Request: fold
Amino acid sequence: MSVVAVQLGQCGNQIGLELFDILYNDAQGGEKKTYCTASCERFFHQTKHGDFLARAVLIDMEPKVIKQNFSKSARCGKWKYDDASSFNQRQGCGNNWANGYCVQGPRHREVVENLMRREVERCDRLSGFMPVMSVAGGTGSGVGTYVTQCLRDMYPKSFIVNHLTWPYGKGEVIVQNYNAMLTLHHLYQLSDALLVHENDTVHRICSQLLHLKDISICDINKVIAHHLGGVLQPALTADSYGVYSRNPLGEFVSALVCHPEYKLLNVSTIPQMHSSSIAYSTFRWPALLKHLRQMLVSNTKMEEGINWHVRPLPVSERTQSLTGSRFNTSLANLLILRGKDVFTAETGDFGDAALYTSWLPPKEAFSVWKCPVTFNKYEKTATLVSNSQALLEPLDNMVRKAWDMFAARAYIHQYSKYGVSEEDFLNGFTFVEQIVSSYSQLGCNG
Reply:
């Protein structure tokens, strides 16, 4: 089954380009024909001339990045975007969610829906959609939210998994916290899952693990694309009986989102290192999985600097207190292993009941997917997608900063002139604060 990517705004389009490049290169380098076939069917369609076209719709209110994407993909000579699968305008949304959601989105709804419909009709079987967007700016967050609403209206039974880029904590856009809050308020009700990457975390990976000195947006996007590729490429599930997953988004959501109040997912992948170091490194499953498990427990975002002192508490020893230092409690985890000797890897430690909330049995909370094909030049790769408290701190910080601005009535008029009222803000705050509360309660006993 195929996945249609919807690349939204500058951030979404730049990440989408890197993602399709990794997916194509990895599939062509695969050691098994069935893996290559499954990957290409999922993310590309082949023309009668043999060209591989990405299953993607590109949307931006400014033309620059989309033009760059078409140029770069065509220049690589491997795959490309379809010239007829994009939409852009001459003027952006001014980093204003309300402009994107209330004005630009509705104004261009018909042409965008026609692009979506055309791309879907190319799929023999549709698994669902993956909108790729930022929550900070105007087009990605505002138009992205509106387009997601259109997809839900058009295809109510299809899976929608949004990929969201979380802005730097020190700020990229002065109103980014407003935009993020309003985006989450709506997407939580429209999407099946929200897969989040934090720019601060990815920047540290580039600096401390990849040892990059002058870190560019392209470097950031390559790391995100590597993580997403480890999640999206074909794998064998527990129920696939030796056949690569036929419904990637459906099985992904089924493994991780068992309750509508918990849709925030984060990704950790090991190993990660500069390409020049891979050939001189040895990877063993026990060591990789030990490190990845402790990254989960301690909410450490990368394998360097893991806090080995944090230990999960048995359910019987947990309290109702929401304060103090606590380990990262999970609702559900999906472990995806790729590479040599993958079927010998012991994953039982990830099924420990102490890692999970008290109201969901570990056998329902933990899933493992495996693939014997190496991924993106790594001999062994372990990727963990977690529905846990890992994003609680950045989410709480965002709400607090947005409240501070709202209390000072800062920039409210910039939203109200496009149709977002103070009541809309208050409804958004209430909704997102409930998400914070729900995730805070995951670690409580009962």
Observations:
- The longest helix spans residues 9-28.
- DSSP finds 16 helices and 13 strands in the chain.
